[in-house]
Design goal:
The complex is a heterodimer of chains A (190) and B (66). Chain A is an all-alpha fold and 190 residues long. Chain A contains ten helices and no strands. Chain A has two domains: 74 residues, Rna Polymerase Sigma Factor, Chain: A (Orthogonal Bundle); 116 residues, Butyryl-CoA Dehydrogenase, subunit A, domain 3 (Up-down Bundle), CATH 1.20.140. Chain A starts with a helix and ends in an 8-residue tail after the last helix. Classes of the chains: A mainly alpha (190), B mainly alpha (66).
Chain lengths: 190, 66
Amino acid sequence: MPSDFALDLEAHRKYLMRVAQLQLRDRDVAEDVVQETLLAALAGQQGFTGRSSVRTWLTGILKHKIVDAIRRRQRDPLFESSLPAEIDLDDFDALFQRNGAWSTPPTTWGDPEAAFSREEFFDVMQLCLEKLPPNTARVFIMREVLELESDEICKELLITANNLWVILYRARMALRQCLEQNWFGQAAAR
Amino acid sequence: MVRISHLLGHWLACRDATRLLSQLEEREPGTIERIRLRWHLAACEACTKFREQLGCLREAVRRYGR
C-alpha cells in the first residue's frame, strides 16, 4: 500500500507530464523522466523540508532529469530542422505597423490575481503553451518553468544568446496574445 | 504643441521597445538602452501595458510551477 507521501507525489504526475512533454516532445521519454522524478522524490523524501511546496520541489528534480535526458539524446533532429524558422522574426512584423508602432495595442488586463485564483486560467495557459512552435515552447519551459539560467540553456541546446533572446521574445509575444484573446479579453463576459 | 517627451519617446519604436523589454528579463540594460526605454515608456501607454503584461506572464508561469 502506498504511503501518504507517495500519494501526494502521485497527485502531481499529470502536471509533471505536461511540462516534460512540452519540453521533450516525446511521450515515451517524458514518461520515463517523470517516473525517474517521482522515484527520486520518494527516495529523497528527507530532502523535502516543507519550506517550498511539493510541486516546486518536484519541478526542481524534474529540471535535472530533463537536462540529463537532453544530454543523453545528443543529436535532436526536430530541434535542428525547425530552429531556423523559429529564430526568424519576420512574421512578427504583422504585430507592428511599418513604422514600428503596434498594429493592435495591448489591452488592460485588469486584476491578474483574480485570474491566478482560477483553475481554468491555468488550463488556458496550458493550451497557449501547447500552441507555441515546438522549440519555442521547449526553450520557454526551460527558462520560465524549470528556471534554468540563460547560459545553461544555450549550452545544452547549442544556441547563441541572441537565438535565446529571439526565441523567448517570440514565446512571450505569442503567449501574451493568446492569453489576451482567450482569457483577459473575455473578462467582461465572465 | 508637440511635447519634447513625445519626441524623445519616438527615439525607440514600439517594436524595438518590446524586444528590449523581453531581453531585459535575461540581461542588464546598457546606459543608452535604459534612457531610450525610459523615454519611450513615459510617452507610450501601449508599451507600458506590455511591460505590465510581461510581469503578469512571468508571475503566471511561476504560479503554474508551484
